Every structure is written in structure tokens, then in C-alpha cells.
Amino acid sequence: MDCIFCQIVAGQAPATILYQDEQVTAFKDIHPVAPTHLLIVPNKHIASVNEIVPEDEPAMGQLFTVAKSLAEQTGIHENGYRLIVNTGAHGNQIVYHLHMHLIGGQRMRHPIG
Ligand code: 5GP
Ligand code: ZN
Does the pTM exceed 0.70? Predict the structure, then answer.
């Protein structure tokens, strides 16, 4: 298993885990770009959005539900935040285990892209 996020999900690599259930795991990004920067990943290894299959829909939906809960827990829900899923080379995806960035605690730069 050479995927760092699979290792974090399995408890075989260190991470500050804020939430975990049967389908998803959330942990702090190791290089935060804002006061709050969390990653929410499916426990199943899905390399990117390009590899999603219909059976993954419950886990994909759960990424949003957990993002909402963590935004509330970290107190950024009222001011707002940004959810990002980078995909492939043009998306600047670095880790090929699908993940949602939850970024907040400061005003995001605009425009994106
Ligand atoms: P992306 O693939 O969406 O471009 O970004 C990958 C993100 O994963 C980056 O924000 C990076 O800081 C984070 N990251 C990479 N390796 C690790 C790690 O070993 N632990 C944690 N907690 N985050 C990581
Ligand atoms: Zn993985």
C-alpha cells in the first residue's frame, strides 16, 4: 500500500484525524494554506474524480455532509469557506487518492482558476 492517504485511513501513517466512520476520514492538511485546512477522503482508494463509479455515490455525498459538520465544529460555517476537489494535471492534483479540501478562516482569494 503505497498511497499515503490509504495509510492515514488505516492508521498506519500519522495524521490529526478529526472524524472517521465506515466510509470517510477527515484529517488536517500537513501544509495548511489557511487557518482551517482539512482534507476529507473516502476510506476506499479512489484515485480521482475520474475513477468514481455509481456505487461510490453514498461516500461522495458523505464528503459534503462531513464537510458541513466540520465547518460548524471549527466555527467557520457562518463566514463561509471553500471546498475544492483538484483533479488531474490541470487541476494540480498531487495526491492521487480523491480528497475534498475544506479551507476557511480567512477570505478566499478571487477569482479561482
Ligand atoms: P492536491 O492533491 O489536492 O493538490 O493536494 C494534496 C494535499 O495533501 C496538499 O494540500 C498537501 O499539503 C496534503 N498532503 C500531502 N501529503 C500529506 C500527508 O502526508 N499528510 C497530510 N495530512 N496531508 C498531506
Ligand atoms: Zn489511497
Answer: yes
